[in-house]
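Researcher: Last one for today. Full complex below.
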Amino acid sequence: MRRSSLGKLAPVPIASVRLDDRFWAPRLQTNRTVTLPIEYEQLKGTGRIDAWKLDWKPGMPNEPHIFWDSDVAKWLEAVGHALAAGPDKPLQRRADRVIAMIERAQQPDGYLNIHFTVVAPRERWTNLRDRHELYCAGHLMEAAVAYYQATGKRTLLDVMCRYADYINSVFGPERGKRRGYPGHEEIELALVRLYRATDDERYLKLAKFFVDERGRRPHYFDMEARARGEDPQAHWAGDYDYCQAHLPVREQATAEGHAVRAMYLYSGMADVAAETRDRKLLAACKRLWKNVTERRMYLTGGIGSTRHGERFTCDYDLPNETAYAETCAAIGLVLWAHRMLQIGRDGRYADVMERALYNGVLSGISLDGRRFFYVNPLAVYPRALTEPSEHLTATRQDWFGCACCPPNIARLLASLPQYVYSQARNEAYVHLFVQGSAELTVAAQSVVLIQRTGYPWKERVRITVQPDEPAEFTLALRVPGWCRGATLKVNGRAVGAARLTRKGYARIKRVWRKGDKVELRFPMPVERIEAHPKVRANAGRVALQRGPIVYCLEEVDNGPNLNDIALPRTARLRAKCDERLLGGVVVVTGKARRRDASAWPNRLYGPSASRTRSVTIKAVPYCAWANRRPGEMLVWVREA
Amino acid sequence: MRRSSLGKLAPVPIASVRLDDRFWAPRLQTNRTVTLPIEYEQLKGTGRIDAWKLDWKPGMPNEPHIFWDSDVAKWLEAVGHALAAGPDKPLQRRADRVIAMIERAQQPDGYLNIHFTVVAPRERWTNLRDRHELYCAGHLMEAAVAYYQATGKRTLLDVMCRYADYINSVFGPERGKRRGYPGHEEIELALVRLYRATDDERYLKLAKFFVDERGRRPHYFDMEARARGEDPQAHWAGDYDYCQAHLPVREQATAEGHAVRAMYLYSGMADVAAETRDRKLLAACKRLWKNVTERRMYLTGGIGSTRHGERFTCDYDLPNETAYAETCAAIGLVLWAHRMLQIGRDGRYADVMERALYNGVLSGISLDGRRFFYVNPLAVYPRALTEPSEHLTATRQDWFGCACCPPNIARLLASLPQYVYSQARNEAYVHLFVQGSAELTVAAQSVVLIQRTGYPWKERVRITVQPDEPAEFTLALRVPGWCRGATLKVNGRAVGAARLTRKGYARIKRVWRKGDKVELRFPMPVERIEAHPKVRANAGRVALQRGPIVYCLEEVDNGPNLNDIALPRTARLRAKCDERLLGGVVVVTGKARRRDASAWPNRLYGPSASRTRSVTIKAVPYCAWANRRPGEMLVWVREA
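Model: Here's the assembly. Have a good evening.
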């Protein structure tokens, strides 16, 4: 088991975790049996698989795009994670065939990129700013590590080590090397992952170089643009903050630019900080974390407020209807939160991770695993979507030309087991509540944890601790930030959850024996959530949340014109499980008021005198919206 | 005096009207002495004046753009209107010099267009859909008529008649002529104006042809695109509804596409309907009117909800912060309303005309006449304007690359006197309440009307009627749609305003004698205006209006974060004149509540428990916003 230098936690790997709950397990099953196969078909049908044959010639259809490699890589990584959870021969054979193609595509010098081999062979490394070359390399490295860890097969890992060695010969601080770094980050975190899998410190050093070099003056992207004969000022994205290269990373204090890029960078920064014990770099991560999670994040864990540049805007600017909140960005937030959690052991990170997982990530895929959202607004009025784009749609789509999200959510779902537990020398952490079991290595021996729970719908979590032998260690159980009044019993006896809880975890240190039982109860009233007064979009509005689940109103349940619904401050809200709805969810109902549109005269404006009538509203989990008849959706409901 | 065939009203021309009130007269004075000179300097400085020399060659700076002619034309038209109101020798000399340049630029065949003479001489009439050729011609025709009517000088009128004759030889239903029509309408209404000035029926016929031909199948724009070797399906604007050519105009029932184009078309349709007694065409105008004013118009008279295509979207889709509401579109609505009013004699048209004039038009220019808004949102958060464009700004600008708005508002302001009164054989109409006087021809003699009023700030309007000789006619006084409880006195004696009012006008038929006095009183409480329940952007919100004036909150008066302010339903609102503010305006104050942001913990979301505190709000006229320190602005205030 690898240990970080900063913080001592490490995730319990997928192969050691089993999920058999009713919320996630069916999702993961669908992901493996439905989503991964249809995504392969899409990759195949669009030419992304065969592109690895490198036989594309100008004039042929399906010109390989600069980020096609990454789409296939994410799918391969997802397959790796899925195989770590359990065998699937056909899937593995399919992946092996793709890997064989990739291996054959590697150039003699180790280089490996479809576009820059067959489409623009003379442009290798000439435009790091815009062309996703190192980004593709990073995703392939992640795939290689995942596939190797799941199957023990080294083919792709060896290919990617050769490629990494080659990249290391091209980039770095040494004389004669390029001081460049990617416009779209990803390789930083991937190199750390490769380092952790191979123990080859050069990869960590290269990751650190990419992180450190970013945003320094003279600016590499300026020099690179001039070398191409272009004016650096004429950068299409306007400024380097678009790709977080406006300042050296240690000087960055606000989350700027393209949200997915930012998340991948910050994740890489956290990785490098952990492995190199770089507290200054970690401090930058923490500053950026505060900025994102206290000022620039949707209630769903979505981030990146605007479609223009798919980017962050400014503090508290979180419009609902025009929210971009790309699925990939919420996934990136999970990746970053997970890293910060291992270092900081602080429930605030797990809270955000959970928020994104149960809401803004999961909304990106349909219940049947076949359709995807690229953007995840918090209010949708299909009739007003007068400028729909490929990404801005009121219904999930089969695929996208820019297909980053579908394979990204597939790999995230396939890797979900690794987010549930962490282990350290004398500590076992439970971050998420998912029925199932895990085998940890704690106190120098195997400790099995068995979770029984109906979370996120039910309040109770029972954990049975099964160490090989009695052993003293700390069992750290997350007490979610959304929860007030959690209770905790050990072997049936109440212990003070509040007293035990530090930084979001109830930490129980004792000699654990086989069969010891812990029971947690997280009261789950329907909460009315308010946003910070500076979030202008949510002034006078509340969102309904129960447990970690954010709710929304859908037109199919509440009729059109959802924004006219106003929830009285005193309205009682009831939660009720509906087994037949959306795969079995808890719905929230209550009495609200809305104007009587039929009584309104045929004019657009008039003196305030409208009458309201009572209506019963029904809210469903945001993550499950748009799985029935298309229509309006609203998270933040007006309060009357 | 010309009479329309449908309806019998005609506007009382500028030369017969004097305004000497405190609201408009200073605006018109500033327009003549400040705005028109600086606009000339802008036209000159950007090359738009010298372009008429036709000496531009490829490679030289300032390549004449396809719509430069229209910028100069609108400025000339404004000068014409200004000269109709009173002499201004320097302005007239300047205009004469420009007209002389235009005259010299006319080609031997009568053609007159800078771009298609010096930049793209072989592309004449090859792309009516996109290239503004007939649009420019129309604006020059309007300028010619205005200048001729103001000064009696025929130079430009003769030039434009020659050009119109040439256009008439190219376009029309006859064999050998092109069955084309403009992508950007304007020439239709201009040709009717030319017809009214010259009595040459060919111009009316040509206008009618352009109107009738629009949207017919086979589609001219398809044929034209194919002739250029282009795929008609590849039209950049997506569909012909962008330029109202998706259907024959008589079949159009909803306002679609680019809002300015729509307004110019509908104005031309109304003109053609009036002059040709075409009741079917008028019916189409009325249908479109209902759609615009009952479903697609901002409270300010702004229209065109989205920047994407500067266009209408769908019914009730009126977002405030992303409103486009181009200044030119509100001006176009005034032009159309004015025409519908002459035909229909219905106060509904005057109500919309007044709404746009006092709000969404006037917001387009600063109080000092030097700076302009292109877009006029109803909520502005400058810090969140993360994608500002030339047009989307939180402060007025000196000029724009696409400079349609500045000269358009100049010509509208200069022509304002013509909107105040209309006359018919035995009727005198007062549409707007502006202190001053007018000389009408009614009952076959001169009738002077003298208005004394502090409108829009004060409730009372006194009109003295001065016929040459006692004469029986109807004095029709508008009772504004916003007003409840208007009172009316004739020679000091109350008469039933409600009883006399039909279609928005109190119609007093009697023998009028010199010195007869009419007094109107329009109670002006501060009204809370609500929007139709289907306008989702305004659910739970009210706008403050007093008289015709729409109010807004500005950050300079109310602090930042305006959307957090909530106005209790029971809050008393006071109106008070502040002579030192914004040139002297009535401000509205009241008690409201807002959250205590300082008491909010340092987190983005939390259970609903925030405390509010009492604040005094101060609202100022929307038309006068952004004349002080830049900051937030909000029209629709939340109601608590």
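The longest helix of chain A spans residues 24-45. Chain A touches chain B through 57 residues (CB under 8 Å).
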